[in-house]
Amino acid sequence: MPLAVVTRHPFFAPVLRLMPAAGAIDFVKSRPTMTALIALLAILLVFAAFPAIDLAVARLFFDSGHGFTVTGAPPFWRNVGRGLEIFIGIAIGLPFLARLLWPDRPMLVRPHKPVFLYLVLAIGPGLLVNGLLKTFSARPRPRHLFEFGGEEVFARVGDLSGTCHSNCSFASGEAASAFWLIALVFVVPRAWRLPVFLATFALLLIVSWTRLAMGGHFLSDILVAWLVTFLVMIVLRLPVLYRFQPEIDRGVTAALTTLGRRLNAAARFVFSTRT
Q: Are 140 and 150 in contact (CB under 8 A)?
């Protein structure tokens, strides 16, 4: 369908009114939060207005004789993505652990950076995607639909009358947590940003592809998960990494120092009484 015809659809009127007639690049740079919101709204409207897109993409990965299969690749890369997320989630907390163990030594990194990463993970993939969207969307997964050998009825984006009762398709928790790794770009040294972005974005594409190939999610589930997580990053970036950075550093450092000293004192007391 020609782009001009698609954009004349009444669903797109709110989006088109928000977008400037010119200077789109300057608009994106100066208003990243508004840009992320517009992109999220546009994706929701596209897939709500044209739900056949989701089914058409799902059919690309479906074989009537074997179901949703891409031999060997999806489980492997899915596990790689999960393993890296767990590893990085633990690694960024090590400076906090080190401060608890040695409370009077300097922090390995400034606390606002791991705080930013943990907040993005908790609010984006955690609260919004897995906590809210997956709980209340009621959207069955592709592999559960009649069209693909299952028993459920397809539900488009925004239709809350689906037959899924728990762990539903919309949106993709794994795509959201994979997108979370891109937040590393905001906290690494400038010289590392491009390599980190390319590596995390490649992993994001692979993990998201596995969810499509396994019939676990629709394309809209994945794109919305990306944009929700990205929106959280953009909203938190200025206050956590810049505006309130000194207060966060002082507060976290002081709290860890106090707790670390108390834990060390408790440990010395326990060991002294045993001896």
A: yes
Residue 57's nearest CA partner among 65, 42, 41, 68 is 68
SS3 of 152, please?
A: strand
Count of H helices and E strands in the chain? 13, 2
14-62 tens-digit pLDDT? 555 555 544 566 666 678 889 999 999 999 999 999 999 999 999 999 9
- Degrees (nearest 5) of the Cα angle 95, 264, 273? 150
How many angstroms separate the CA atoms of 168 and 130, rounded? Answer: 9
Lookup: tokens for 138: 């009621």
Instruction: For residue 48, say if its preceding peptide bond is cis, omega within 30 degrees of 0.
Output: no
Rounded CA gap, 80 and 68, in Å? 20
Q: Tokens 């517009």 correspond to what residue?
A: 38
Sign of the four-CA dihedral 129, 134, 137, 143: positive
Identify the CA nearest to 151 among candidates 159, 140, 160, 161: 140
Indicate the SS3 state at residue 229: helix
DSSP state of 9: S
Orientation of helix 193-213 relative to helix 219-238, angle to 10° = 150
pTM check: above 0.85 = yes
Q: Please say whether the beta carbons of 154 and 165 come within 8 A.
A: no
Give one DSSP letter per residue of 104-144, joined into a string: TSPPSS-THHHHHHHHHHIIIIIIIIIIIIHHH--PPPGGG
Tokens of 120: 């993005």
Phi, psi of 25 (to 5 degrees): -65, -45
d(CA 207, CA 201): 10
What is the torsion angle, in degrees rounded to the nearest 10, for the CA atoms of residue 58, residue 198, residue 107 and residue 100? 30
Sign of CA dihedral 207, 212, 215, 216: positive
